[in-house]
Design goal:
This protein is mainly alpha-helical. The chain contains 13 helices and 2 strands.
Amino acid sequence: MSARQQVPLDRMSLETFLGKACPKIERALKKSLPLTHNSLFNAALHDAVFPGGKRFRPTLALLASRLVLADDDHALTAAVAVEYLHASALILDDLPGMDNARERRGRPCLHLVYDEGLAVVVALALLNAAYILVVGGISRVSVAAPAAFRELTECVADMIAGQAADLAPSSEPWGEHSEQPWKTSALFRLALTLGPVLSGAEAADVLTLSHFGQLLGEAYQALDDCRDIDEDRASQRRGRVATLVIQHGSAAARETAANLMVEARRNLLAYFQHHPAAVRLCEFATSAVEQAASATAKRDTCVL
């Protein structure tokens, strides 16, 4: 652990933590929606954020913030900003000019319900709301807000670069320097670091959490590609970059994800000296990745 004063013991179970955190996240997301006087826009905005799946990223933000004793307001600000950014990215990913998706979380994509133009405006509103939150929004102004804003904009830049790589024809295979995992890892890194940065956490703490987020994102992306293999094969025929799954198969992707998580846990727990809050963070992240791996294994069985 860094030279700072060690965090006090926090033996709250993961189940107890989630029971308190999840309702808090939902209330904060609703409270900070960038509503207007346009009822159709507001309806689309609400549908873009609710229901929101498992809220994996904002929960990571709260867990990481708790680990470094981040201010509660800053932790929740980070959680909401990360989820708004995630929702914005999903809207844009689904558009006809991007993935041309038809369904998201079992419902028609936003652009199919409200038309493409309004979907784009909602995505921009959520992105802007994330910016506003980080520089003051629902929390008291932080002296570290400029650094946090830089963290946010660097994440967005990596997500844009990753999307551009997805769209551009490429003959390069998936590999160590591939841009394929950029979008996912960028958002996971932000989830792990934004709250701590807002609260002025030490640089070494932030760097360790960022590395954990990078490895977690790469693992999650490998498993997500297993679920999306049919769409990715179609994209590859149009000239887009091949994924790890297409090159080496689902079993190899699951093995890669497992190895990445072993490394992520080892690094984080060693740095934070197996503090209970660090163990809880690893437990939550591992559970989410294992659920994704299980889903891909079931998919392979159905295909066979």
